[in-house]
Design a protein that fits this description.
Chain lengths: ~260, ~220
């Protein structure tokens, strides 16, 4: 579904993505984690070509993003994106936020779009907030509207860039619940998050990125308990608040004993 | 005098609408990633903002017909409404430079994430501007835009210099025929104040109408 082949990207002199190779199958749920500035956001933003790449190739749903003939707008319509700061349109109500793209891109009538939007708002538990403007919604509610806005395009891929990290702790679970329900629908999901409990529950694989490199791609059960790399171990222990020793050291320790 | 008021209003309305239209185009051009477009937009603003509006009125009335080929110029001069047309062209070009600058600053203040959200749902470039960025820009710049439109309205009085029969011109005519300058000027002044105040009131009504939107936009950016 999504394939990175030797992808390199620079911001001016900074090498932000280094030789990325990653194959994500249809319906897979991928969690990306790693230290700040490591290139997580940049990586998922290349998937819908908000960020262009300088080297390598990315193939999404069979279309090469580096091919100038690829219709980026059409492809983006199939890829939902949820941002850390929600990015709802402040001049539109919850319902209008959701209705815009289905009407303008998919050509739905106003009535059809409204039906779809209403259904989605029900689904994310906000049926009573249709006519609220973003300013009249809590952060958690805004994020759920933002998810509904992406879902309204019936995407085959959903990208999440730290969807809960701007939220108060008591609001996080509502958003995670909505995301968990999506994992059961066969949508391919790429999620940047540091909610490791959530990752453990839903992820098929966890990708650890540091300094622009993919250091590990593992099943969640492995990467949390048995990280291979020092840096992964260090990061995981900080996030999980438990001491972790990387595999290679364990072996050394075992041998020493 | 009433004809003068009508023509003043006509010129003010037409130039305001046109300069809003062209101003939007110039502002979007200046926000473009295509360098030549940005340059043209910038050039336009610099040319028209740095030369007095009166110059452009005189230019379009006196000079422009002269430099036209064939007898197009003569035909224009013979056209009885040409002063009004020249007034509209001159003032629109002048006002557009200011309006586009106000719009551009508003556009720059729309957070980057708004455009990214719009892009990621598959909206085309035009749609991104049409439904996401420009509506927010307009709500945000209502106050300075309103001031600019009042300014433009008052600038219509400059058009008397090219014999456009607007309010100021009519006042002068009445004065020179009836010698009742004080009365005529007082009434004209009242008209100007009345219309300016109405314009201000319209802006306030618009701001009220978009109150939630504007609050929402301001708060979301904080
Ligand atoms: N538009 C940009 N221009 C220049 N440099 C950028 C830009 N965006 C990101 N960078 C740089 O690229 C690197 C990777 O940034 P990125 O946002 O992808 O990291 P991240 O892993 O998402 O970090 P965080 O956890 O803080 O969100 C950083 O060094 C950052 O400073
Ligand atoms: Mg990031």
């Amino acid at each position: 579904m999504i394939e990175f082949i030797n992808v390199n990207k620079w911001f001016g002199p900074i090498h932000v993505l280094k030789n990325i190779n990653l194959h994500i199958s249809q319906g897979e749920v991928i969690v990306i984690c790693g230290p700040s500035g490591g290139g997580k956001s940049t990586l998922i933003r290349t998937i819908n070509r908000i960020e262009p790449i300088q080297e390598g190739e990315i193939i999404v749903d069979g279309f090469s993003l580096t091919n100038p003939k690829t219709d980026a707008a059409a492809l983006r319509a199939e890829i939902g994106m949820v941002f850390q700061h929600f990015n709802l349109y402040p001049h539109k109500t919850a319902l209008q936020n959701i209705m815009l793209a289905p009407m303008k891109v998919r050509g739905l009538s106003k009535k059809q779009a409204k039906e779809r939007a209403t259904r989605l708002l029900e689904r994310v538990g906000l049926a009573d907030k249709c006519d609220n403007y973003p300013v009249q919604l809590s952060g958690g509610e805004q994020q759920r509207v933002a998810i509904a806005r992406s879902l309204a395009m019936q995407p085959r891929i959903m990208l999440f860039d730290e969807p809960t990290s701007a939220l108060d702790p008591e609001l996080i679970n509502d958003v995670l619940d909505v995301m968990t329900s999506l994992t059961k629908e066969g949508i391919t999901m790429v999620i940047i998050t540091h909610e490791m409990g959530f990752a453990q529950r839903v992820a098929d694989r966890v990708v650890f990125i540091d300094k622009g490199e993919i250091l590990e791609i593992e099943k969640p059960s492995d990467i949390f308990v048995n990280p291979k790399h020092d840096r992964t171990a260090e990061f995981m222990s900080k996030i999980l608040h438990i001491p972790l020793v990387p595999n290679n050291k364990k072996e050394r320790i075992n041998k020493a004993e | 005098m009433i004809t003068g008021v009508k023509i003043t209003i006509l010129i003010a309305v037409v130039t305001s609408v046109l300069s809003l239209l062209f101003g939007t185009v110039i502002a979007v051009m200046r926000n473009s990633r295509i360098k030549p477009l940005r340059f043209i937009g910038k050039l336009y603003v610099e040319i028209f903002r740095n030369i007095p509006g009166l110059f452009w009125l005189l230019f379009f009335y006196f000079v422009f017909p002269e430099i036209l080929p064939f007898d197009l110029g003569k035909k224009l001069n013979a056209y009885p409404y040409y002063p009004i047309v020249a007034s509209i062209i001159g003032l629109t070009l002048d006002n557009t430079s200011y309006v586009s600058d106000i719009l551009r600053s508003g556009l720059l203040a729309v957070p980057k994430g708004q455009r990214e959200a719009a892009i990621s749902t598959g909206l085309s470039r035009v749609q991104q501007y049409q439904y996401v960025m420009l509506p927010q820009t307009f709500r945000k710049i209502l106050p300075p835009l309103g001031t600019r439109m009042i300014h433009n309205f008052k600038n219509t009085s400059l058009c008397m210099a090219i014999t456009t029969p607007e309010l100021m011109w009519a006042t002068q005519q009445i004065e020179s025929i009836t010698f009742r300058g004080l009365e005529a000027t007082t009434i004209a002044t009242l008209f100007y104040i009345l219309i300016s105040l109405s314009l201000g009131a319209i802006i306030i009504l618009l701001e009220k109408y978009y109150k939630i939107d504007i609050a929402s936009i301001t708060k979301m950016e904080a």
